[in-house]
Amino acid sequence: MCNKALIAAEAKSTKLLLKTRVQVALLGLIVMLTFFLNLGKAAPSIMEARNFITVREITQHKAWLIPTMNGYARLAKPPLPTWITALAGLGAGNIENLAALRFPSSVMAGLTVFFLFFLARQLSADRLVPLLAALVLASSFLFINVGRQATWDIYCYSFMLGAIWLLVSAIRQPGSRYFEFAVGGILLGCSYLSKGPVAFYGLFFPFMLAYGFSYPLRGVRGKRSGLLLMLFVCLLVSFSWPMYVYLMEPTGFTHTVSQESTAWVNRHVKPIWYYWGFFAQSGIWTPFFLAALAVPYAKRRVGQYGNYQFLLSWILLTFVLLSIIPEKKERYLLPVLIPMALLTAHYLRYLIYAFSEKKYTGWEKGFLVTSGFLLALTAFAVPTYIFYAAQTLQAAPGGQQVLATLLFLLLGIVILELTRKYKVIWLVIAAALLNALAFVFVMPFYQDMEELGGKQQGVPELEEVRKNAELKSMEFYAVGGMRPENVWEVGKEVDTLKIIKGHLQLPVDLPAAVFSLSPLHHANLSDKGAYLYFVGQYQYMDGVGDKRYFLYILARDTVEVNTPIDVVEQLPRK
Q: Where are the beta strands (DSSP E) in 70-164?
């Protein structure tokens, strides 16, 4: 009788959360808060800068099918994310609006969350596991970091996860399901057009291996025609752009394929154990994920709600496949977060059951109480950081600070109360909400603090170059080349000049703007008819105080050669 009462109490408390529309609305709120606010605050990373430069140039030069980056064909990256981002910038009316350029990536991050939600509904009969999996993924550290930036990783993995969901759905449901197979094939092709075969290797292949090892394949045999349709559509979409490039630029295509095939073994090479700390990428969910990895403890508990062998093998296969590739970057761990979120969700589902049924162990009680206390402590610490940042930035206290303080203090109290009453499901939601609100209120202050600490006082930013009207008609050059972030800042293509045997290479067309990280002199010019005019100094990169760009105009003019560069302020005229 007691057990029936407890089960009834659990069902009553979670009844609202079992409704699909409530789950979708909750996920939509978390996604909106986490991925769509304050998108324009952070300066572009090096990868974003490369992508944004390509976006700018395909719109300026109408080179949509053969994209360029800083004037050179960029054939190594399929163009689908570039096209989508360019359309977002054009739709916003400003191709350099950072929030608009990052908006499509946020959309793809949101789609990934919902794709996992629907995939989990296919893999588990329980109706809380999909919600938990989507919440965990949406609030995982690395996933947020990638989803808020305009890198193309989120595109290829989002499309791939959508294809996997449709594939599983088509296999498990009765009937031919040709529509699901066809749309799945389109999504597979879109994944290829986003970043080549990356997601096929990092997500699709380990998933299929794990699924084949862990589930009977009887249903697959009857879906051969659908699978062939999916493969055909995938190939048709995937090779549409590469075939066009091969026909138009055969030499460039062959060179690119050769370069990319060797890049995985000779670029950004890291040791095989580089990803050993991959579990920390789940952020606030790391302790729960580690508990779910403890096979003797977790197998029986997780197995009540899903296939533990499948979940664990998917994670391990992905981790191994990523580790054996010599080329490694932190964001390349993105595909392992998906099965990690699923496994963590199954363990959280067990905890919901254990505490509602009062079948938890002393270790589990201590684990939950400690996790809840740390979450509450984080919530209480946020107002302190906001106050400190506001004081440092000399920002006058405003309504936003007051609102943030009240929200986080209230959330901290709620988390403590939920912990005291062992309300695990609501504690998970509160943790996800805490994570999301941090990006709403804390991230702007953090980014302003970073910007303040990195600026060189009295030295203008490189973007100021755009305001110089006389430079707009000139070609830009940089001695030794220029970082992608700086090329994005100056607003146009920047070619490279070299100093050979003490003499600066001269462009064909003069006058030209020349950037250099060290002062230039007339002695650097081999052509006696050429002259240097000093324009100014500009910041090189935030946080690097000992470097700056010196900007000159290189021209043929009547100004005397021995005129000191540092006192010539006027610009040469054509």
A: 72-73
Phi, psi of 455 (to 5 degrees): -80, 145
pTM here? 0.90
Q: What angle do CA 284, 286, 292 make, to 5 degrees?
A: 135
Rounded Cα gap, residues 234 and 163, in angstroms: 10
Question: What are 293-343's pLDDT values in tens digits?
Answer: 999 999 999 998 999 999 999 999 999 999 998 888 888 999 999 999 999
What distance in Å separates the CA atoms of residue 62 and residue 291, rounded to the nearest whole number?
53
Is it the case that residue 398 has pLDDT exceeding 80? no
Look-up of token digits 């009788």:
1
Alpha helices in 357-423 (DSSP H): 362-392, 399-420
Name the DSSP class of 395: P
* CB distance 541 to 483 below 8 Å: yes
Half-sphere exposure of 376 (CA within 13 A, CB side): 17
The CA–CA distances, whole Å, from 489 to 47, 117, 367, 539 equal 14, 39, 48, 11
- Cα–Cα distance between 220 and 136 in angstroms, integer? 30
Q: Go through 425-464 and write b for each residue having 16 or more CB atoms within 10 A of its CB, e for each that does not.
A: bbbbbbbbbbbbbbbbbbbbbbebeeeeeeebeebeebee
Contact 450, 488 (CB under 8 A): no
